[in-house]
Design brief:
about 350 residues; Immunoglobulin-like; alpha/beta; single chain; Aminopeptidase
Length: about 350
């Protein structure tokens, strides 16, 4: 029988042997680079989801996407955004980015932590997804929608209630102004003038300008806007170039594939060219049938292309760059829209 002293000595010997074996194994694993790692590539914490790239060579630190939580209640007509009681309307900004099919709600002075555990409740049928981010003291709730909607909002009892309506439920008169991104600064300036002058018009005008992040939209997406809102007319603005620098004037292009009684693309083209030429006291080059322009062939509403002048003509180029001349062009276009409604069947 072992004495207590012999037992302690034997235990110490076994401990030393175990330690030596463990050290040998550790050095072996380090030499052969054997490591145990988690196989999970997605880490989820609440509503903050971060994804790791699968390629180690391309691995970069990514900002987490903070998603909005929704709770669907189809019985409700509104989508409710919870706010603190007493939240004032002047701290709320609503931006409807029609071309992106996105709705942005800016809440001044609200922390991102507010919606870490709060849900947007009610009718979410038209909301595909949403996320929020804090910028410059304002929390932006950004939602991607399944279409183009007008939004009516009510601030009541600590909630911002939002109702999504189709454009035709809100407006009886709808027009679309198309301004291709690749066009000259002249066209962009004319569109700005139209926006300023149209504020008091009894017509809702949508613009196919750049997206919220400054990117241009493809032709198909610009035409889709006019078709989806069921516009009464689509007017696309361009400038022209010609090898002959003496050529000048205003011309209109149309495609008569789409036709409705009493008012179609050819009637729209005629009205717009006439009213713009009258406004600028310019030269009309007449109407031209175009079977290839994707704006004209893709539209399911009356559509026309207005070439307001030639940049290749030095004198006309100087005129189009003048602020007062651009205002005249914009005035002529708005007059044409109003004149068109005189013959559009109601």
């Amino acid at each position: 029988m072992l004495t207590k002293k012999q037992l302690m000595r034997k235990t110490a010997i076994y401990s030393v042997i175990f330690s030596v074996i463990s050290l040998v194994l550790i050095f072996y694993m380090m030499k052969n680079q054997v490591f145990a790692v988690s196989s999970d590539s997605v880490v989820s914490t609440g509503d903050v989801v971060t994804e790791e790239t699968e390629d180690p060579e391309e691995m970069t630190e990514k900002a987490p996407v903070t998603r909005i939580m929704f709770q669907q209640d189809p019985k409700q007509a509104y989508l409710g955004i919870p706010l603190e009681f007493g939240f004032s309307a002047d701290r709320i900004t609503v931006e409807n980015h029609y071309m992106d099919r996105q709705l942005w709600i800016g809440l001044k002075g609200v922390s991102a932590q507010t919606y870490a555990d709060k849900k947007l409740t009610g009718n979410t049928l038209h909301v595909l997804e949403g996320y929020y981010e804090e910028t410059g003291g304002t929390l932006w709730l950004k939602m991607r929608l399944d279409g183009i909607y007008e939004v009516k909002s009510i601030l009541e009892n600590g909630f911002l209630y939002m109702n999504f309506l189709s454009p035709r439920e809100v407006y009886s008169r709808i027009a679309v102004i198309d301004a291709p991104y690749e066009e000259s600064a002249v066209v962009a300036d004319v569109v700005t003038k139209i926006q300023e002058l149209a504020k008091n018009q009894d017509v809702k005008i949508y613009y196919t300008t750049a997206t919220a992040d400054g990117q241009d939209q493809r032709v198909e997406e610009r035409v889709s806007l006019a078709n989806e809102v069921k516009a009464d007319m689509l007017i696309s603005l361009r400038t022209g170039m010609d090898k002959d620098s003496t050529v000048y004037g205003t011309c209109a292009y149309y495609n008569d594939t789409y036709f409705i009684p009493a008012f179609g693309s050819i009637e729209l083209a005629d009205i717009v060219e006439r009213d713009v030429v009258t406004a600028i006291s310019g030269k009309a080059l007449g109407l031209t049938f175009d079977s290839k322009d994707p704006i004209l062939t893709g539209a399911t509403v009356p559509a026309m292309v207005l070439q307001i002048g030639y940049l290749s003509n030095a004198q006309e180029k100087k005129l189009m760059e003048r602020n007062d001349y651009q205002t005249k062009i914009a005035t002529g276009i708005l007059q044409a829209i109003n004149d068109a409604y005189e013959i559009i069947p109601q």
